[in-house]
From TrEMBL:
Methylates the class 1 translation termination release factors RF1/PrfA and RF2/PrfB on the glutamine residue of the universally conserved GGQ motif. It comes from Chitinimonas viridis. This is Release factor glutamine methyltransferase. The gene is prmC. Residues 98-188 form the Methyltransferase small domain. Belongs to the protein N5-glutamine methyltransferase family. PrmC subfamily. Residues 9-70 form the Release factor glutamine methyltransferase N-terminal domain. One of its GO terms (biological process) is methylation.
Length: 273
């Protein structure tokens, strides 16, 4: 038998932060982080301690905690994640906040999420706008399966469709289009660092200059946006200016960028004139 305190100490000695260790231990044993802190002397069965040590070894090898425990919090909700989808990041909450500003609370409207991944954006939007008719597409069937489970988890009705951007949408139109597309340029060193090594490459990079998918999204948006509808998308730290230029060239009005909490221009958008 191993105590909570001894297992957490072993994690610290191996270089794993305490918070990560407690998350892994909670996943391995079912013992909440609150109970771990309150009863450090609690003894765990050998099989639970073994599961914890296995998770610890995988974490030491670099696997993201979110994939190890299968969950990540986003916009105050817990979402299922797997290696089929990106790990939700705080920066994307800005995109959700801006989208909510463009969705009426008490009037029906339609919105589209392009490249939905785990479904964090449409689920968050639908959770806060119950009258929203929400559609989400992704080219990956595995990602859509994760998104479907997250929609069910949070009781948020969403229409999911497999599509290469707008490819399967016919002539459907929406009041709002949002997207967090792959925007890391080919050869960017970050692709070989940290969590990105384990995330789906196709959801991270366009294997080009980082703007290839953004161009496609902007070019196709006028066909699928109602008059006066908004397009909002996340992009890289250095892509705000070219994103605004692309929107302006496509005839969008009120083109602008918004900063995240770190002061980095992270979301750009415009209105169909």
């Amino acid at each position: 038998m191993s105590s909570v305190a001894s297992l957490i100490m072993a994690a610290r000695q191996s270089g794993i932060p305490v918070l990560e260790a407690r998350l892994l231990l909670e996943h391995a044993s079912g013992l909440s982080r609150t109970r771990q802190a309150a009863w450090p002397e609690a003894e765990l069965p050998p099989e639970q301690a073994e599961r914890f040590h296995t998770l610890l070894q995988r974490r030491q090898a670099g696997e993201p905690v979110a994939y190890l425990i299968g969950l990540r919090e986003f916009f105050s909700l817990d979402f299922e994640v797997s290696p089929a989808v990106l790990i939700p990041r705080p920066e994307t909450e800005l995109l959700v906040e801006l989208a909510l500003e463009h969705i009426p609370l008490d009037t029906p409207s339609r919105a589209l999420d392009l490249g939905t991944g785990s479904g964090i954006i449409p689920v968050s939007l639908r959770k806060h706008r119950p009258m929203l008719d929400m559609r989400a597409v992704d080219i990956s069937a595995d990602a859509l399966a994760v998104a479907a489970r997250n929609a069910e988890r949070h009781a948020t009705p969403i229409q999911l469709m497999q599509s290469d951007w707008y490819g399967s949408l016919g002539r459907e139109q929406f009041d709002l289009i949002v997207s967090n597309p792959p925007y890391i340029a080919h050869g960017d060193r970050h692709l070989a660092e940290g969590d990105l090594r384990f995330e789906p490459r196709g959801a991270l990079t366009d294997e080009a200059d980082g703007l290839a998918h953004i161009r496609r999204i902007i070019q196709g948006a006028p066909r699928h946006l109602a008059h006066g509808g908004w397009l909002l998308f996340e992009h890289g730290y250095d892509q705000a200016e070219p994103s605004r230029a692309l929107l302006t060239a496509a005839g969008f009005a009120q083109v602008q960028s918004w900063d995240d909490l770190a002061g980095i221009a992270r979301v750009t958008g415009g209105r169909r004139a």
